[in-house]
Amino acid sequence: MAQRRLPTARTIDPRDAPSLRWGILGPGYIAAEMVAALQQGTGQQVVAVGGRSAERAAAFATQHGIPASGDQDWLLAQDVDAIYVASPHSAHHEQALAAIAAGRSVLVEKAFTRNAGEAVEVLEAARHAGVSVAEAMWSRFLPGYDVVRQAVEQGVLGELRSVTADHGQLLWPNGPARLAEPSLAGGALLDLGVYPIHLAAMLLPKVEAIHAVGARTDLGVDEQEVVTLAGAGGVLATCQASMSAKSPTTAVIAGTQARLELAGDFYRPTTIRLVAPDGDVLDTYEPEEREHGLRYEAVALARAIAAGEQETPELPWSETLRVMRIMDDVRAQLGVVLPGE
């Protein structure tokens, strides 16, 4: 093999990124996580939060000490450089377009939109407006994912043969409405399956075939699925997602000379082991910090904005569109159609 050690992450310290004034649209759980990540791990400023519920916005403001309103237009009128869209999938398209129309750059929570058609509209609007946009798929901005990316590119594993990842959480039927309701673009794929699919897409530059099997709920959204992606040269990726059972949420990236084992939860800052075919552990990556991982995606957008770039190198628009098209294909095979599609 080319080397028997893991590469060093090239990720820049989030505290060194240009400081932006951020507004947050959608005062929920993930928005609270982002606020903590930005306030405790970067020089970014969160100056306003808005949503469709005055009561929720007020509670969020009290908890985090940030001016808030239940009026989306109020947020878009504030002096901010970028908007983080943290609402359910069903609102991403509309809210991202509104932010872009207001001249704001946008970080849109994953899944970027409900489908590829909506994604194209958002990205074309951003292109014409001259603002920056990125999908908030935080895993792809983490230092550990850069270690994985380099290890595969440099041949540390030999010839890549397979990628296996699972993401199962016990979130249905007694979980949040955003996962159960078709009107909120619910289902396992857009919320959970997007993680293993993004990992596979990062490592398979071209997907030549997609096969999916799964089960739907009584409301018609996907409860769980297994997706196989066939890459060039016979490389296979198996991506499993479920919202009705907790799985180990691990990943294995296997080559002819070694494999990478990503401990659960594989999509977070986690332990990565380089393992020989005989089981010997050749090297181990441990993240410097396991908290505040959301900051990496935000500072990547901040750097892009400061550099006059419309997309981030870690997750360019073409990759966001490719993942959305893969998921469109999967939903078509499962017979999942969301309202308005």
Automatic annotation (TrEMBL):
Record's SUPFAM superfamilies? Glyceraldehyde-3-phosphate dehydrogenase-like, C-terminal domain, NAD(P)-binding Rossmann-fold domains
Which taxonomic lineage does the organism of this UniProt entry have? Bacteria, Bacillati, Actinomycetota, Actinomycetes, Micrococcales
Which residue intervals define the domain Gfo/Idh/MocA-like oxidoreductase N-terminal in the entry?
20-134
Q: What is this protein called?
A: Predicted dehydrogenase
Q: Does the keyword Protein biosynthesis apply?
A: no
Similarity comment: Belongs to the Gfo/Idh/MocA family.
Q: Which domain of life is it from?
A: Bacteria
Q: Which Pfam families match?
A: GFO_IDH_MocA (PF01408), GFO_IDH_MocA_C3 (PF22725)
Q: Which GO terms describe its molecular function?
A: nucleotide binding; oxidoreductase activity
Residues in the signal sequence: none
Q: Which UniProt keywords apply?
A: NAD, Oxidoreductase
Write down the Gene3D superfamilies for this protein, in alphabetical order: Dihydrodipicolinate Reductase, domain 2, NAD(P)-binding Rossmann-like Domain
PANTHER family per the UniProt record, alphabetical? OXIDOREDUCTASES, TRANS-1,2-DIHYDROBENZENE-1,2-DIOL DEHYDROGENASE
- What positions does the domain GFO/IDH/MocA-like oxidoreductase occupy? 147-261
| InterPro entries cross-referenced by the UniProt entry | Gfo/Idh/MocA-like_OxRdtase_N (IPR000683), Gfo/Idh/MocA_domain (IPR050984), GFO_IDH_MocA-like_dom (IPR055170), NAD(P)-bd_dom_sf (IPR036291)
